[in-house]
Amino acid sequence: MSSNPDQRDVILPGATLGVMGGGQLGRMFVHAAQAMGYRTAVLDADPDSPAGCVSHAHIRTGYLDEAGLAELARVSAAVTTEFENVPAAALEQLAASRPVAPAGSAVAVCQDRAREKAHFVGCGVDCAPHALIETPAQLAAVTDELLPGILKTARLGYDGKGQIRVKTRAELEAAWAELQHVACVLEKMLPLAYEVSVIVARGRDGQVVHFPLQQNLHRDGILAVTQVPAPNVTEAVSQQAYEAAHRIAASLDYVGVLCVEFFVLTDGRIVANEMAPRPHNSGHHTIDACDVSQFELQVRAMTGLPLVEPVLHSPCVMLNLLGDLWFPLQAGVRAAAQREPDWAAVLALSGTHLHLYGKTEARVGRKMGHLTITGATPAAARETALKAAAILGISPF
Ligand code: ATP
Ligand code: MG
Asked: pLDDT digits over 127-138, tens only?
């Protein structure tokens, strides 16, 4: 595909780029956009939002506020999103007057687990055996083959929230009641060997590039550690994941950065788990370990600038810094008083890159920042990462 888009269609530095959502992903997008000379506007109701605090403009309204959306459209040359639960209707309203990338129609597929899975299957990409549960009749029709399984709300789940593991039919019924009988997907529990993700960026001209595959370790349903290169994944499995992610992005006619999470099963097969229509936590290392970050590619895709195939210049490990670290465990009991982790000790290790999101309050399970550790070799990065983890009170991996 052409890597020289027509200059007339390109939104050049100096213009203002808008972003729906003010979380850490928006903050890192703002950093990347500003580094390239763009101005930024963030729409988020929270006056202390991580992205709002660093943006040229911060529109403090809800996602469906007519005046807020009109203001964002007025000041922005193009708009993107950092949060997949931005109502698709809001993106469609913006799209009436400005380029919006990704489009509301693509975000809508990612917002709904049932539609997402149907999309994977339509692209010829395997996913976990599953059933949609919206009615008591659908619940009754569930086959034993899906048990043990995980009942997941079809919408608004994240970081393992809105999910209940069930072994029996009785547990399934109780779990659906606990989830207030909202639309759910029951997924068969699969034997996972590893979890991996692929981040792609797709331009307006259809060009698709991808980052090297990430291997991800989750703890309590929350991403804890990402390693690149993936230590346990064969080239054949990586290629399958890249091809699947490219197909998924192309068939959504996607513009922007998209992450697809996969399970590698104990028999070596891979199945798609879910996707995110934005940069992803498993791609934060790209800021420090790649020659172009996922956030810069988000800027390039939405402005029509050329995409380039990212190169990992340093093997790395990314450790998520959850609010737990501010309340250390002492003899198995969580401290009541908050303390600041020992950043100086961590930064004394060479190859450590600290990112904190400026959140004012630490809470257990809250993503406060991340630490990327680069090294000359994967073993060196891992060794330093284990030292940093020990200092911070993160369990070894
Ligand atoms: P995210 O923060 O990534 O959006 P989420 O809340 O949407 O998370 P999932 O990715 O669906 O949740 O699941 C969270 C974790 O639970 C997975 O990373 C995996 O470890 C485990 N898990 C989910 N589905 C299955 C399954 N079908 N079989 C085995 N383990 C699973
Ligand atoms: Mg997930």
From this structure: 999 999 999 999
pTM above 0.90, yes or no: yes
Residue range(s) of every CATH 3.30.470.20 domain in the chain: 192-392
Q: pLDDT for 195-243, tens place per residue? A: 999 999 999 999 999 999 999 999 998 999 999 999 999 999 999 999 9
Residue nearest to atom 19 of ligand 1 (CA): 221
Residue in 130, 192, 270, 278 to alter for ligand 1 test, most ligand atoms within 8 A of Cβ: 192
47: buried, middle or exposed (CB in 10 Å: 19+, 13-18, 0-12)? exposed
User: Which atom of ligand 1 lies at the shortest distance from residue 160's CA?
Assistant: 6
Calculate how far, in angstroms, residue 125's C-alpha sits from the geometric centre of ligand 2.
17
Assess whether the C-beta atom of 159 lies below 6 angstroms from ligand 1.
Answer: yes
C-alpha of residue 221 to centroid of ligand 2, in Å? 8
Ranges of H-type helices in 333-377: 343-347
DSSP bridge partners of 278: none
Which CATH code for domain 5-100? 3.40.50.20
What kind of fold does domain 129-188 have according to CATH? Dna Ligase; domain 1 (3.30.1490)
Mind listing the pLDDT tens digit for each residue in 144-198? 999 999 999 999 877 667 899 999 999 999 999 999 999 999 999 999 999 999 9
DSSP state of 13: B
